[in-house]
Amino acid sequence: MFTMLLFSLIIFLVSSVVMILATLLAKKTIMDREKNSPYECGFDPKGSARLPFSLRFFLIAVIFLIFDVEITLLLPIASTLTLTNIFSWVFTSMVFLIILLAGLYYEWYQGALEWS
């Protein structure tokens, strides 16, 4: 019990010394208004809530989510290649990719219509 207390005290002291040294030796930067203001979703959060939302920002976020889900679902498909029939594996993978590409094309086409 005493050794655990001693190790905890040593860890606390070492981490405190490192934090104090980092604070003292850190390069001080001039804080301006833009660096201190938060940036979320393409608009100023302190302004009016009735401002129109940027459609370009929304479409980029949706495309990012599509590719994020795509990678999450495609990685296990590659690992099941040796466990399944090659025909069913290729068929399932192709159907999945065609659905994802059709959704991406639809999002791109809708975005192109809105921007023009």
Automatic annotation (TrEMBL):
One of its GO terms (molecular function) is NADH dehydrogenase (ubiquinone) activity. InterPro entries: NADH_UbQ/plastoQ_OxRdtase_su3, NDAH_ubi_oxred_su3_sf. Belongs to the complex I subunit 3 family. It catalyses: a ubiquinone + NADH + 5 H(+)(in) = a ubiquinol + NAD(+) + 4 H(+)(out). This is NADH-ubiquinone oxidoreductase chain 3. It is found in: Membrane; Mitochondrion membrane. The keyword Acyltransferase does not apply. Its EC number is 7.1.1.2. The gene is NAD3. GO terms for cellular component: mitochondrial membrane; NADH dehydrogenase complex. Core subunit of the mitochondrial membrane respiratory chain NADH dehydrogenase (Complex I) which catalyzes electron transfer from NADH through the respiratory chain, using ubiquinone as an electron acceptor. Essential for the catalytic activity of complex I. It comes from the Eukaryota. The keyword Transport applies. PANTHER family: NADH-UBIQUINONE OXIDOREDUCTASE CHAIN 3 (PTHR11058). It is a multi-pass membrane protein. The chain crosses the membrane at residues 6-26, 57-80, 86-106. Its main location: membrane. Keywords: Electron transport, Membrane, Mitochondrion, NAD, Respiratory chain, Translocase, Transmembrane, Transmembrane helix, Transport, Ubiquinone.
